[in-house]
Amino acid sequence: MKHLLSLAQLSAGEIAAILAQARQLKADRSQPGGRSHLPLSGQTWALIFTKASTRTRVSFEVGIRELGGNALYLAGSDIQMGRGETVADTARVLSRYVQGVVIRTFAQKDVEEFAQFGSIPVINALTDDEHPCQILADLQTIEEKLGTAKGKKIVFIGDGACNVPASWIAAAPKVGFELWIAAPKGFQPATTAGIQVTEDLFAAAKNADVLYTDVWVSMGKEAEAADRLKVLAGYQINEQLLKVAKPGALVMHCLPAYRGKEITAEVFEAHQQTIFDQAENRLHVQKAILIQLARR
Ligand code: CP
Ligand code: NVA
Q: Among 23, 32, 175, 220, which residue's Cβ finds the most Cβ atoms within 10 Å?
């Protein structure tokens, strides 16, 4: 594994290796002296973010430091790329200074171009097309709660055409879970091979092991907010929907959450343990990714 640009590019074995290492790192972190392994010692990793972030930024910065490295946060608007310097030139410059880069941006082609022109590992920290680190942390969470994701029925409800469901779709054939996407027309995924897509959220949620949702208005889609709230209204995780899922089904949310929109406040609070475990697992899974990509 040279980069993590997309879940679609990972093999089943690579996903399993990341999850196994993340599990070990989580166990180690709770032990005194568990952080003595410093594989990023002497390294600096840059974080280029052109979109807002709480979880991804903080968990990467903390993770890099816990592995012995330095994290250098670069807001897209502060570097020359924000004024039109090309991705290719930025990649070639940063490759002379730092040992790896974590990028959150709009176009998937920008992270791919960075990897193509630079000579350092690139991690996709969310683009319009994918959010691989999120889904790897979610898989760790499902393993912790249900033993395995394999064979489980995972149902995504809401904007089925955004980055988070796209990474779920990429993971499905590799991990071997049954994936349903419940979304209105216009918000259904472009790629549907091997998954079930329906407008009927109750049919989708029937006997589900996991109900999963994400914001209705992704970053960059703010101009469409009014329209999205109208069309997606009803594609909500609430008590009624939960009743048709398996007893004890997990409710998951990548966060940030908008109560009263994609999830009710009651369901969110009843399942906050799982949801904040997902957020915590971003740290462990990303440390595993950093270790696998770090050049020694
Ligand atoms: N889930 C997630 O990626 O959160 P942030 O946007 O806060 O990084
Ligand atoms: N789909 C959301 C995910 C946020 C973590 C967005 O792109 O804004």
A: 175
